[in-house]
Amino acid sequence: MLRLGIAQEFDVLVAPATSPRIDPSVQQALIPVLALIALLSFSVYLFGEDASYGPNQIALCMGAVAAAFIGWRNGLTWETTEAAIISGITIAIKPVLILFSVGLLIGTWILSGTVPTMIYYSLRILDPAIFYAATCLICGLIALSIGSSWTVAGTVGIALIGAAAGMGLSLEITAGAVISGAYFGDKMSPLSETTNLSPAVAGTDLFSHIGHMVWTTLPSISIALILYAIIGMNIDSSASASDLALTMQLLQDNFTINVFMLLPVVALLVMANKKLPPIPTILIGALIGVVLALIFQGPAILALAGDTTNLFLALFKGIWQTLFDGFSLNSGNTTLDDLMTRGGMSSMLNTVWLILCAMVFGAVMEHTGLLQCLVTYALSFVNSTGSLIATTVCTCIGANIITSDQYISIVLPGRMYKMEYEKRKLDPKNLSRTLEDAGTLTSPLVPWNTCGAYMSGTLGVATFAYLPYCFFNLLSPVVAIIYGFMNIKIAPASTEQAA
Hints:
Helices cover 76% and strands 0% of the residues. By secondary structure, it is an all-alpha fold. α8 (149-167) runs parallel beside α23 (450-459). The longest helix has 28 residues, at 206-233. It is globular.
């Protein structure tokens, strides 16, 4: 994940909300959750793939209204609820700014030929039969080196999506492979913020946490790679050969393709590896893209501007339009045109709308005590190590759904269950591993979560469309639960920890 100011955000998340005058009941806590689930299901039924373009936002707002009404009935004033909403939205400001910056980056990298060049070379190197497995592996290795799933998806991921389109392969499976690989690397990298946050919340050290994650992570990613390889075996390579040749020719006809176009990628990955602030890093990457576009892609800029009477103004207009509204290609090939027509700050507006509505719902649920009530109720069913880990997993997933924030899905269950793990004489690294297996990895599977909204908006594939193919993200929570019930690699507390 990109650097989002964890220390400041952590302070906001754990700050106690104003206590309700009347403690909410479990029945009250379930009302807004069930209402939200019903409305979201109805939204998908009525609007299908367009559900995230307005209907889901309304469902989240209605769920927030239900939660706020219950809080008012329990004695909370609107003023305190409003303050909690503002605080919740504040948490999402950095991801929103990053989203707008990524919009700029995508548009300029297409205009500069960076994305077309990555697609072109991917088409030359990768065989369709191994494409999905190779996509997962490439994204995993890069994310492991820089600790950022968002950076990988917003750069290499976009190129691999383009390569899949050029080969006539499934964009949904490709997006699932990108996300699986990106989150594997993010999860296992000591540079990742979630990988540092989880042991900090649970009370263990970073490298004990990473070492303990190996036992659930390696089986999950191995199975995922095998599944991608099996899917690849069923691809008819000869059928995709004509699509591949046509795409490569169209890319050469519309863009200048050479290795210099990869300079923005190298620069961005170096800056991300050095953990420079994300927004300046992304903007510098976009600026390098603009410079390359002016040097190498003059015809593409002029075609975008549409008016060549004044060369300077035409170039200026083309760059400006790319920054706010993205790049648009008219090659005559519908598939390639749809893929290359994207980016710009405006492309992220719907994603921002979704995130803001989701944060409102999560803030009201937390402020009214309804979320705390549900977690406390879940603890009443814990009677073994297996059930404790299963409850932790379910709570992390529920927090991703309800609060729409990956960090809350780590911090909240971590704080809630830490004492229970201690009481059962379990090493805290069991808790930190479970927080990552469920909290970090299921965040991109929720359409209105900041991670799910980002992945969908960046890769251009709906969350529910790529969800079935995020094999690593789906397997990890299951493996964690199986380990818990079968007592596999569940570390007991040391003598000092028990004392």
